[in-house]
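So, is this right?
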Amino acid sequence: QVHVVESGGGLVQPGGSLRLSCTISGRIRSINTMTWYRQAPGKQRELVADITSGGATNYADSVKGRFTVSRDNAKNTMYLQMNSLKPEDTAVYSCTVDYVGLVSRRSAWGQGTQVTVSS
């Protein structure tokens, strides 16, 4: 079995920072692209940022210059450093991991972590 777990969410004031983590564990041979998504109440899920196995990154326009995605391949973990947070960043943040398992390439999702930006 493969498990994906996010952590690091919480309540923060506008202008504050948080760092989210996403870790995959289980029977995997390699990890390809790792992606952060978020979904706010009443809104569609949106891609926040992703990072390839080679370290190439991609960001939503709404977070460019404020968020930084990174990964530690030795720990099978992706991070999202979020600075200058705004109330509109409030959402459940989830990650998805594109990996190669014992037999084939698959994707796995985590349960998500709540981020609330409020004074």
About this structure: Residues 18 and 102 are 34 Å apart (CA to CA). The chain has a mean pLDDT of 96. The first strand starts at residue 2 and ends at 7. The chain is about 0% helix and 60% strand.
